[in-house]
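Pasting as-is:
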Amino acid sequence: MSPILIGFVVYLLVVLGVGLYAFKRTSTQSGFLLADRKLGPWVIALSERASGESAWLLVGLPGAVMAAGMLEMWTAVGCCTGILFSWTFVATRLRKEVGRTGSMTLPDFFRARYPETHEAIRIVSSLIITFFFTFYVAAQFNGAGKVLDTTFGDLLLRIQGGLEGVGLSLETTTIGILIGVFIVLFYTTLGGFLAVAWTDFVQGLIMVFTCVVLPIVAFVKLGGSNELLPRIRAESHDLLSMTGGKHGLDALLGVIGGLSWGLGYMGQPHLLTRFMAIRRPSDIRKGMLIAAWWAVPAFWGAGLIGIIGLGAYGSGYFEDPETLMPFMAQQIMPGWLAGIMISGAIAAMMSTADSQLLVTTSTLSEDIYHKMLKRQSTPEQLARFSRIATVVVGIAAFVLAMYSSKVVFTMVSFAWSGLAAAFAPQLVLTLWWKRTTGLGVLVGMIGGTLTVIAWRFLPFALTERVGGVLVATVLIVVVSLFDRKAHESA
């Protein structure tokens, strides 16, 4: 057995062990969805960071930087800014509000905050979460397939041969996706939020370790700046420009496109769930500092992996640049350490997929089955229904991942943009602007979502992230003002 495979197997045993342990301590709906709000700032902060930065951090972002150069580093700046804003202006107020209303999900919070909308706001927000998260989880499974195929191609080929012997013909990437799906569904279905949070804690440590150590060692071993920078310049000076060689309005739009990733953090339900689950509001400040210290080295390290790969191998070396990180780890690191780092890429996928599966599950079980359909069940029965829903959503995401040819970065961008437009301005204005009304939030959800979907077919230079959030914000403000005026004059 290779050292890389040994490192990966050890990692899997750890996360599966956590899942079994959490299963014994999770028997109710509140425990399955929010771990009974008993987790402290270290676990919550690292869980929030690990689940926030999915397979795209170690797979998608280095590949994007390798393809586009330093221009893509504005994404790292935007993400770090968005993380800090979300912890500063959303976390504490949201935790206090859900504690007051007893809400366990984001649709449940909006329904409690705006009772005048009846079930409309719950239905719309639940449908939006289910739609975009199916794409998001599929992106994570795609990332797992790429990493496993790049790392354990020979092993997957042997598995492929064995399956063909019994009449099943599957590509090696599909087999890799299946392995990732099985692991995530196993511990998420068993342990719920408690298992997800603690496995995220481990995964977050591995991810930031990989983002810090791999680019440092690669920079030294692959020639340093004296060799890497001339190679990049020989290919194109634009690759080392923070504007990608663009000027004027084009340069500004490129920078805004990268920074706009930060808009999404306030609207991602799987991250907001962490704020809702933290033990007490006073833990938020400590959690914010932990999250910030994680984010800066992680994002810049992932970007540097792409730059170093560009200098070492050239932009045309890989058919798929998103395979750069696992390839580089195997090339320059000792086998056992490469196994841990590649586990970091799988960890990035699993830490987001499990969280998104859990949020989608909570939407189906708590918001639709329990609250909207008024099904009377015991806490144990609701937990059992949640586990079944987790498996169903996971299978749907697997099917989408198997038949999708989209790259991880593109799929994540679409889902991230949709969730940002549907929930970020809605939540921020709800928490900070007293004139916000339920009708304004509802119209903003619908308008923001439709804008993101339609934007991809329109010839606009700005990304759908900016367009969707901008349209949603305008709709919320305008409709809320008219709605207030109508009620005051009635």
